[in-house]
Amino acid sequence: MSALVNAVVMLGMLVVVPVGLRLAELPELARIRGLWPLFAVPGALSLWLPRGLAATVLACCYAVGAALLALHAPRRALRDRDLGPARIALLTALTAPAVAAVALVAERSGRRLFGFGLDILALTVPHFHFAGFAAALIAGLVCRVSGGPAGRFAAYSVPLGTLLVLVGYFLGDWVELAGTLVLTAGMWTVGLLTWRMGHAAGRDRATRRLLCSSAAVLAATMLLALSWALGEATGLPHPTLTWMAATHGVGNALGFALCSLLAWHRIRPPRTEGRTA
Q: Which of 62, 95, 209, 256 has its CA 20 to 30 Å from the CA of residue 18?
């Protein structure tokens, strides 16, 4: 599982985050986006080294970049003052890599963090790149162009669900299950709106296939997430972490996040945020 998780994390660091930052269309992020390889490449290299000092130092390089990105969120929030759902989703996306980076540094140093074992920390890293950064960003983009109650629900519920899942790490499986329910509802809404976008009149074939593939994969991967969270909370039979990494994790990374970001890169949504956020 380690090599598979490492490959997924590398995709998040080297592709998903920089492409997502470009789609965010925030001019003040241009410098961080330009410097991102200086943070992401050492972070990616740290994944393949044995746990220890060298891997920890390289992971800390990534943590610096993630921290700079996260620090932008409160500054932007204070500047905007009146935050709408699309903006909240975007700011949530900016903070998610920092959570992943903290877990990465702890795991690469071989130290348990807040009582969590190294396997859980290793899986937290891809989770907050894809269920955190990519999911929140895409929910915000969907809200920006679709508007309406469904778009606003997606943009609110994805960040809220992500936060509840994080809190559930500390408060117990039932809180994590509640977070998974909220996150799943938001992600299925994102999937529904993405599916509709894929069938919009005038959509070119490649973009349509990317959007529809993303929506279809999302329906399945979030069902797996619900199955796992329900099993953890109730003791019912549920997939193992290895199986979840190979199915839910890879599906979310390739089928949902990568396909969605490639589609949005082709769409280049107009900046209507002032009207819909």
A: 209
